[in-house]
Amino acid sequence: MKKALVISGGGxxxxxxxxxxxxxxxxxxxxxxLFVGTSTGSxxxxxxxxxxxxxxxxxxTHVTQAAIFSNNPFVVKQTGKLTKTKINHFNxxxxxxxxxxxxxxxxxxxxxxxxxITPEIFETVQASAKEVVVCVSNFxxxxxxxxxxxxxxxxxxxxxxxVSCNFLPFMSLVVKNRFEYADGGFGCIIAIEEAIRRGAKxxxxxxxxxxxxxxxxxxxxxxxxxxxSTLDFMGDQIVKDNIKVGKLLAKEKGVKLRVFYTPKxxxxxSLVFDRNEMLHWWxxxxxxxxxxxxxxNPK
Length: 299
Hints:
The protein has 299 residues and is α/β, with parallel strands linked by helices. The chain has helices at 14-27, 40-49, 53-60, 65-68, 89-97, 107-116, 119-127, 154-165, 192-197, 223-253, 275-295; strands at residues 3-7, 34-38, 74-79, 82-87, 131-138, 143-148, 174-176, 179-183, 202-207, 256-261.
């Protein structure tokens, strides 16, 4: 029976998904045939398929803003335990003067992906019976596309992972094969439907958001706040549609579906990458999966 692990987008919150996945694979001994990731989920799935969990945990819990952004559109300040984020207007203006189409650039992330997902990991997955798929948004054709490791060269697949993570307008807009691409989450934040379409009969889906809204948004202070609120609102609606369609399709096809949500709001800006927070979220993900599966299956 084909089993799939599906991981949603969620930026730095991907550390929580890593903890859940680690528990499922190491403690529950789940063996997956298919791994499907969107955005931050795409960063996890290759290592999980190769069962290199320790390596991806180290990568996720040691990442910094500088490792992601070649031009960071944010200013992050730590005041005690409180993290404050605002737009770096100087870097944004600098990007526009350079003729760029976005507020920031994430070319450092592409380099990081190349260092972490080695040819050996790629070849290990390629030689196995497992399939790894990442979701990207084709802005030129106005379509969602799914890129399978088995159908790509090494360099192309790393490009697609990078593309899947580029949340506009704060990260790079990528031109590949003459088309403009960006974060897969703009069309499909969690690809449960795609996993079922590819034949999965059991699906574990990790959704990097709470099951019900637990936080009201603060009133916008400027144009950037309005933009962030708009993107968050659109993302919330896509999540609801993805989950609803996924559950309906699972019921129709007789697929066993388990969805793991975050038990609380982890952050209000998932483009801020803090090592200590991400290590804590990884541990929280592991503990949450343990609690859910000890007390009973998640919804």
